[in-house]
Amino acid sequence: MSTVQKVNLEPCTDILPLWRKDLPLADKTLADPLNAVALIDGEWLVLNSSYQWVRASAIVSVGDPALIRSFVLWNERGRSDRMGMADRKSTCLFRGEHESDTRIYDAAAVVGSGAALTAVMQPLKVATITIGTRNFSGLVGHGGSADTNPVVGYVTRLPASNGGKLRFISGYRS
């Protein structure tokens, strides 16, 4: 299990070639750092039919998987530029491969036909996880061919050998 910090997603590769997408949040209150369930960097979002960001999982029930392609949020909680915009736009890493360290994961969670995180190059999916006393939309192990949820990346460094952070490479091929 990880811990939530001020910076929860740290790209390890150059981000210049990545296509970042700044879009409004469907629920603008999620940009408010005083909101008990505010979005934090490293959480995963999906696009709704109005071309707005929505959490990839509802975060109400632990283990709920994201059923469609998800994108990682790359805004630190409470950034003043995000708060100052009327439409509360948020930035996700949208296209292109990147390698990043994240604190928003649960290495022990087994969601559906998924598996605990135990190996480098293990596929990852997004599901509702608990860190401390709060739920997030974060990374868990994917179950391979038996798992119908989208693969969002692959483990490149396990938390035990990376200071408690999970390192992954994006998996936009699947």
Describe the structure.
Helices cover 2% and strands 33% of the residues. By secondary structure, the protein is an all-beta fold. It has a six-stranded antiparallel beta sheet, with no helix packed on it. Strand 10 and strand 11 form a beta hairpin. It is globular. It starts with 8 loop residues before the first strand and ends with a strand.
Number of strands: 11
Shape category: globular
Beta percentage is 25-35%
Task: Give the H and E element order.
Answer: EEEEEHEEEEEE
Q: Domains counted in the coordinates: how many?
A: 1
Structural class: mainly beta
The spatial strand order of the largest sheet comes to 1-7-11-10-8-9
